[in-house]
């Protein structure tokens, strides 16, 4: 039998060999008989975790049969008085949950390359080893779902402390691959940015073998390139691929917000419009597709520029686009800095408008517009398909306030989805109001007097800031209620002009 280990079989000191071998790694893992993951020696009750994972999966499989194979309904049917899963402090159940948590905090989970190593092979052929114990990935998957439900750990990776969420994030990505989701480079990079790597260029190169929109020669790994050039290559790739979603990469830009958990040192050589993949943020860009199995006009989430395409190109450190300034920000809320587990929806409650019955320009009340804004008008309604998204969704405060212990499994699932989707949307963002009364959801770095703009070729709207030299900097993408489906192109102030972002 032939064995292959990347750290041994690749000369890490030879940049040219590394570049060649990186292009082969996807096919190596895909054709492997077994992908073996070594988590380390037994420690922190890891043996108990492995024993319990086998017991939990057997029980979970029986639960799924009761709900016609639905994992979502099966896990939400587990109640707090089920002593097979729940137990008091110091019980075997609690010890097993803590052991699983510690297992998922081991160093292996934090490496960027595991996103490829741990997701390409069939789950039954991906085997986890720890001490003398071993299980395949299907057991871990069931355990992660149960652990998430029991502990109400609904952070969905939204944190600047990633240790507990890495395994869940990785399994979610693995599911998408297994289900045939059309995974694009930006989606892979968005996942990988939370992981660590010794060479920051690997944030891109580790993603290439998993992105379905990247051809072999689109981006060639080159470890002799400076980091800034490597990251600008991502933007160039996105612009070259399509007119209709060429600005989606702007959604991955996360500007520093001083005094918050989103304060960080931006890579100084990167332009404001280039995502800094070195910053380990679990930040979710606004949704760009409603149907994850395709990426075409019928599946786009928004159409702010109404299909209009101006020129768009990169020249050195400048991004040349065309667009229109819609308004400027006059008021901003606090920033949502905590996930559901840590802070619930207290930040969102504090944003509720002072005069909720006031009229909004769409014909709704301000409160109705606000409820659409904090989920960016997108949510899940189909219990048979948890990946199916739809527009026209609004946050339901009555459902959010209900006691989940007195709800059916179906209602609990809808409540869980709504809370999670709202938090994914608001995390790292703040609500803003413009001078014309628009209500929007923008990046944490957004400030009073920032401009709200339409950029041709973009699905969403964007926040820009005029610098001292009168050049605009990019701040982040935003949602403005009532202006996301071409209305901005028909606005009385719509006037296309050239914009050069620095």
Describe the structure.
The protein has 502 residues and is α+β, with helices and mostly antiparallel strands. The protein has 2 domains: 6-182, no CATH class; 226-502, no CATH class. The protein is 31% helix and 14% strand. The chain is built from 17 helices and 13 strands. Strands 5-8-9-12-11-10 form a 6-stranded antiparallel β-barrel. A 3-stranded mixed sheet has the order 1-2-3. The radius of gyration is 23 Å and the shape is globular.
Entry keywords:
three-stranded mixed sheet, 31% helix, 502 residues, alpha+beta, 2 domains, single chain, globular, six-stranded antiparallel β-barrel
Topology record:
Blueprint: H1 6-9, H2 15-22, H3 25-31, E1 35-38, H4 46-66, H5 71-76, H6 92-103, H7 114-117, E2 126-130, E3 133-136, H8 137-151, H9 166-178, H10 185-192, H11 202-205, H12 227-241, E4 313-315, E5 318-332, H13 340-343, H14 346-350, H15 366-373, E6 378-379, E7 390-391, H16 397-401, H17 409-426, E8 429-434, E9 439-443, E10 451-455, E11 461-466, E12 472-480, E13 497-501
Parallel strand pairs: 1-2
Antiparallel strand pairs: 2-3, 4-5, 5-8, 5-10, 5-13, 6-7, 8-9, 9-12, 10-11, 11-12
Helix pairs in contact: 4-6, 4-8
InterPro entries: HET (IPR010730), HetReg/Transcr_Mod (IPR052895)
Organism: Cochliobolus sativus (strain ND90Pr / ATCC 201652)
Pfam family, one: HET
